[in-house]
Amino acid sequence: MAGKIFISYRRGDDPGGAGRLFDVLKATFEADQLFMDVDNIEPGQDFVEVIQERVAESQILLAVIGKHWCDARGVDGSRRLDDPSDIVRVEIESALDQNKRVIPVLIGDIKMPTPENLPQSLHPLTRRSAVQIRHERFRDDTARLTVDLERALRAHSNVANRISSLFGAHPQNRTVVRFAIVTLALALAVSAGAMLYFGHMVRTPLPLQSFADEEVLTAPSQPAQPSQPALPTQPTQPTWCSNQNLKPDERRICATQALWTLENQLDVLYQAVLKIAPDKRAALNAEENIWLRERGGCVQDENCIRAKYRERIAYFNKLKND
Prior knowledge:
The chain has helices spanning 15-26, 47-56, 87-97, 138-156, 159-169, 174-192, 248-255, 257-276, 281-296, 302-321, and strands at residues 5-8, 34-35, 60-65, 101-107, 131-133. It is built from ten helices and five strands, in the order βαβαβαββααααααα. It starts with a strand and ends with a helix. The chain is an alpha/beta fold and 322 residues long. Helix 1 links the parallel strand 1 and strand 2 (34-35). The longest helix is centred in the last third of the chain and has 20 residues, at 257-276. The radius of gyration is 21 Å and the shape is globular. Strands 2-1-3-4-5 form a five-stranded parallel β-sheet, with helices on both faces.
């Protein structure tokens, strides 16, 4: 599995938690896929440039946050996080600036820092969905994180050499064209030693729901009749709505049945296309990440979110039927 994970942590904060997490990840990922300590900076090198290079080589940065991550003090008594040269701050700033997937990993019962407790440059960190690693449920929590990391890295693998078939089928589609541009930027960035990351979500199967003015996918073995389409009688929210760290657009979707019905319908279409063309999984996953970021730009505008879904559903219906 291609891809690297940069583990950012503050020494003296919760080194045991970071160390245990590193040991768990070593059981799944190759040693050269994990980067935890910037210890090999040679004398005379600019440590900021070295960190930026290491982050550029990674696809994911885990920001491990323990009890003293925010209020750790330097020898002069000032808060380290307020120092622009603080290594932890530089690591996370570099990942945010390079559009990497940044995952806050909260150790124990620590809560996500608020913007008021962070320098301006780290405010975007508070909008990233966090993972809680509780000491009493360490094995289960790290197992879920490992699965998420595997999915995210898998979405990056072989994108460049698999996307051509997708482009050939739908060169006119605006979403695909945008993805082509990003893919080209990825190839150029790799050759220069810096990589772009596409986003952070892989869909999982969800039940099909109804929506009056949208096209509904039906199972091939049971074609829907025009007068009586086969639909569930009890619609349900997407399972991810139970997450406590939802983004603004996700909160709006979970609060609006018409929107989460569209989400369920889109997910069924997405899974159907993957079943028809499993070789396009990596390309579609990466493209999906771009779309999710675009949807996030709607914030809580219901009409904007609805339009994004309609465009996306039409696109997947076309993929499915061609």
